[in-house]
Please model this.
Amino acid sequence: MREAIKAYEDALKRTLIYRFAESFCRCRDTFWMESFNHQLLTYLPKRIHFHTDTFKMRMYLAVMVLCM
Model:
């Protein structure tokens, strides 16, 4: 259990939001979030309802594309 928690903490600490929190807190640098939101809307349009499995698949796909 401790190994899983440690792995989760390490992954979290590598994210841009964690490393540059001051930019996100003061809204100095929001283009990362805007880009992510745009990417999500590309794969998850608001006007279409998706079942849970399809929603998760499209969400993961949007995250993978953004990270490339």
Q: What stands out?
A: The two ends are 30 Å apart (CA to CA). Residues 52-67 form the longest helix (16 residues). The helical segments are 2-13, 16-19, 21-25, 31-43, 52-67. DSSP finds five helices and no strands in the chain.
